[in-house]
Amino acid sequence: MMPAARESLLDAAYTALARRPWSAVRMVDVAAAAGVSRQTLYNEFGSKDGLARALVRREADGYLAGVDRALTTHSDPRERLTATAEWTTSAARENALVRAMLTGCWSERLPSPALSAVSSTSAVPAQRRADGPLPSPGDFVSLVRDRAVTVLAGPGTPKSDTADLARSCELAVRLALSCVAAPPGEGGVTELVRSALQRHAG
Fold this sequence. Notes:
Layout: H1 3-19, H2 27-34, H3 38-45, H4 48-70, H5 77-94, H6 96-103, H7 125-131, H8 137-153, H9 159-181, H10 188-201
């Protein structure tokens, strides 16, 4: 099956989830919305749980792709970390699955696949990946921190500087996550992260 068809099935599932709780989303409706047969949907994802895992995996990947973009937006490292924090809070605000993944708080409305890997019999590589472990909130902190360090450190950075940088990156990520859980007032995440990084560097 073409990756495009898989994407349109995931889009249809995401749209259905925006309108009703996951428990009320029916495979037959997802297939119809994507313009494929129900059999095609089952061939691709195996089950409704498989579809849920694939959807969560895709949203996790989309969030991390946004992190990669944010880390290359400015030349100033602090501004890059601030942009990453801003992206984290906006992605979580706009996407209930991203918010659930980052906070570990899965509402009744959402699918809540086990984060541990499930045994996969799928012949579809993308589904085998989705059946693998899904990132926990702690995993996201590490993933984003490590990506930030890689981009900001550059080759030949001394180990001691990298350790400091890793702490600054983790601080920015954790501040962003706290803003997801408890949205800040005026100035928002931008001011919080800027002032924290200022103090941290000083």
